[in-house]
Write a structure and sequence with these properties.
Helix content is 50%, strand content 14%. By secondary structure, the protein is of the alpha/beta class. The longest helix is centred in the N-terminal third of the chain and has 25 residues. The chain is globular and about 55 Å long.
Length: 471
């Protein structure tokens, strides 16, 4: 393929963090540096800011892409070989606020609410129908052998639903939890991450390292020693407890993992929250951080070098936002990063590069379970190592997972399946079923509370939901 004719489309390009990271990765490859980059967002103001970011990245890297920006989705998709998706339907306000505040009235509290739990269910119901519409546009307009690279949560539900709905445009779900966690564990162990070799598989946000080695040495004994001696970072106590209980380390952060199970967030159990350092309302807190950060980012985009990250940090400290400190520091690093282009750990650009050039790579992607993991349901979405080259993204077979890990994952897959069926079959009753079977929700609420809460959430989200989900 002639790179000058290659078209890469970013849907939801107003997500500045992803746009900066992904474009920095893409345009750093000489073979991709002259591609057409099509940016799309429904928020024209954010879109124009991201367009400025794109030009700044290209100039910093000496790349010569053709950059277009349009609020017309079909125009952006026309002729695209690669589509990268980072949308958030409903945004922080009102949708995410609603997902947290209504369940609180019933005594159900959350940390992130984007993957499972009642927040993940509602986000899936808002997002999957919108992405199905996008998928129909892709099928009509995209180039031959096009592929959809999805970064949107709830990842497993979306990957499952979209691949059920389309055979021409495959969706591969992408996340950074596998590679981020490997780096975190390397830091805990005091060894370079590049020296670690691992096998990892499961479902998105609940995959586990089946093998974690350095030069053939099993590193799990050293990780268990860290757990026994309490030397793990305070923000990672949940995952180290899972290592102790299940024998393997999970890939997603402790604040995420805590709400995928019935064990950590319970009414009247502040002792559990303190013991495992679980930050309730963490995701709304992150959104508040970026609400404060965004004016700084806009001014920095208009006048490079004009904004002091220390001033942003002082404002955030004064705002007394209840969120983990690393999220506050992350906002400051984003401001600094607008002027320093570094390669991220995201897989999107490397997938594109491998499919264009044929250079083989291994990534971890979310795909349908077609005889990949024996003791998870066939057809569900799984996260496994995949070979990528000119033939595309090719998942590798894992076989059977340790039985305790597969059993835990199936409790999450049950909820994912019911949300997918609620959308594809247009069945409101399956929304109740999903909430009833959700591990965290069912551990806190009774059946009458669950139905009442679901009804109230569906009513509150009417503007973002298809008609079949209205009361």
């Amino acid at each position: 393929m002639n790179p000058r004719r290659l078209k890469i489309t970013l849907i939801g390009a107003g997500s500045t963090v992803f746009t900066r990271n992904l474009l920095g990765d893409i345009l750093a490859y000489p073979e991709l540096a002259q591609a057409e980059i099509a940016l799309h967002d429904i928020d024209e103001h954010r879109l124009r800011l991201s367009e400025k970011v794109a030009h700044r990245i290209a100039d910093a890297l000496g790349a010569k892409p053709t950059i277009t920006a349009s609020t017309d989705r079909r125009r952006a998709l026309d002729g695209a070989r690669f589509v990268i998706n980072t949308i958030q339907v409903g945004g922080y306000k009102p949708a995410t606020v609603t997902d947290f505040e209504i369940p609180k009235k019933y005594g159900l509290e959350q940390t992130i609410g984007d993957t499972l739990g009642i927040g993940g269910i509602m986000r899936g119901l808002r997002t999957i129908p919108v992405q199905l519409e996008m998928l129909r546009d892709m099928e009509e307009l995209c180039a031959d052998r096009a592929i959809h690279l999805n970064y949107v949560n709830p990842m497993a539900m979306i990957t499952w639903a979209l691949n059920r709905a389309s055979t021409r445009i495959p969706t591969v779900g992408l996340c950074h939890s596998v590679q981020h966690t490997a780096q975190e564990l390397a830091n805990d162990l005091g060894i370079p991450v590049g020296e670690i070799d691992y096998t990892c598989a499961g479902i998105n946000h609940m995959a586990f390292y089946l093998r974690f080695e350095r030069h053939g040495e099993d590193l799990y004994p050293k990780l268990r020693e860290i757990q026994r001696e309490g030397r793990m970072p305070a923000w990672n106590r949940v995952r180290y407890e899972m290592l102790r209980q299940l024998g393997h380390f999970p890939t997603e952060s402790s604040e995420h993992f805590a709400e995928y199970t019935p064990w950590f967030i319970k009414q009247g159990r502040a002792d559990l929250l303190e013991r495992f350092n679980i930050p309730l309302d963490e995701y709304p807190g992150r959104c508040q951080v970026y609400e404060h950060a965004w004016p700084y980012i806009e001014r920095e985009l208009e006048k490079p070098g004009s904004q002091d990250p220390k001033a942003l940090l002082a404002e955030l400290d004064a705002a007394d936002i209840h969120v983990m400190k690393r999220e506050v520091l992350g906002a400051a690093r984003l401001l600094e990063g607008l002027n320093h282009i570094e390669r991220s750990v995201e897989f999107g650009a490397s997938i594109i590069h491998s499919m264009v050039t044929g250079q083989p790579r291994v990534i971890h992607g979310n795909v349908l379970n077609d005889r990949l993991i024996d003791n998870l349901p066939q057809g569900c979405a799984v996260e496994v190592a995949c070979l990528v080259d000119q033939a595309g993204v090719q998942p590798t077979r894992v076989g059977a997972l340790p039985v305790q890990l597969a059993a835990l994952m199936r409790t999450n897959v049950n909820v994912q399946e019911l949300v997918v069926e609620a959308v594809l079959q247009q069945r409101r009753d399956h929304v109740y079923h999903a909430a009833m079977l959700d591990p965290h929700t069912s551990a806190v609420l009774d059946l009458e509370q669950i139905r009442a809460m679901v009804d109230e959430l569906l009513q509150a989200h009417r503007g973002f939901l298809p008609e079949y989900l209205h009361a």
